[in-house]
Amino acid sequence: MESRLTFRDRVDICWQKQLRDKYNELGAPDINLSLKRAIVRRVNRKVAEQIILRYEWLGTLPFSCTHYYGLFFGSYCAGVTCSSVGGGGANVYAYKEFGLNSQNEFAYLQRGANVHWSPTGANSKLVSWTCKLLRKDSGAKIIIAYSDSDAGEIGTIYQACSWVYIGKGSSTNQWVSPAGRIYDQKLASNIAKREGIERRDVTKYLKSKGWTEQKSNPKGRYVFVLDTSNKALIERVEKMRKPYPKRGAGETDNAPETNQETGGASPTAPLINQD
Question: What pTM did the predictor assign?
């Protein structure tokens, strides 16, 4: 599909590169930004929202996320990742594609973003440590993430972290709110149900409120095996490997991107882990 409704126009330059340029004039906190001094640790949803709602493409943070991690320089959080374990947010049967026995062995990196002042290499460290900690904290054996061409993404950060590209996924049904924000069907239905709308009346209700339906943009799929002792899983993923997508002539990718969502706290405010 050539075009779809969205509350941002389709871009050819990575969205987070655009934000970095936009916010640079706000400056950075007066701290040591050496990656050797940075640490990655779990944070709560409230901390994650302050960055995701300002810096990521889609403008939402799904409630299906179960694990949040932040990259810290002292008390300042320079980026976060938000993942779900157990199939939340992804296809409920996605784990079967990889020969897994349970949804709880499958993780999905749903959101990720770094602030404008984060140093070069911060994205890679955050994603790499997210994988390490997620394996320890959840027992998941594999993690999947998506790159969205509408956001100008080709999955640069996943390529830098040696994830395996397994091609594009299928298009799914979405709802577009009157404000132009895009929601998957489950999230939009949940909104209606909170209003006391019966399941059979959800579509009629949403349309009466100005919501519209559309097909999603097929996204690039990247996976990373968390359980390195599982040789069968590694072999299965290797058989699915496809060449990394590259940018066409004239396109720009001057900053690594994360998985692909605005508004929130001051970008240089100290964000303290509140777990």
Answer: 0.74
